[in-house]
Write a structure and sequence with these properties.
The protein is mainly beta. 5% of the residues lie in helices and 49% in strands. The chain has one domain: SH3 type barrels, CATH 2.30.30.240. The chain is globular.
């Protein structure tokens, strides 16, 4: 099965532990030069002054990619990247 990023960005990320909708993929973490997907990035909490944060979910936590959603089991806490953490 193959997906491109534009297809994946249309799918909601659902945590199957509690049924919570984590939003849609905003980006991915890919290693270079291996080309391995290490994680998916979802929007985090919004902050009216500084933009907000992002959740970086390890790709090994992805259980299934379906027609409408990406099901994840948060096997490890997602990394939270604040908007001010820009490099």
């Amino acid at each position: 099965m193959e997906f491109n990023l534009s297809e994946l960005k249309k799918k909601n990320i659902i945590n199957i532990e509690d049924g919570k909708d984590l939003g849609k993929i905003t980006d991915m973490v890919i290693s270079f030069p291996e080309g391995k997907i290490n994680g998916i990035i979802a929007p985090g909490k919004k902050n009216s002054f500084f933009g907000g944060s992002e959740l970086i979910i390890s790709f090994k936590c992805v259980e299934r990619i379906g027609d409408d959603a990406i099901l994840v089991r948060l096997c490890e806490p997602p990394t939270i990247k604040e908007a001010s953490d820009e490099e």
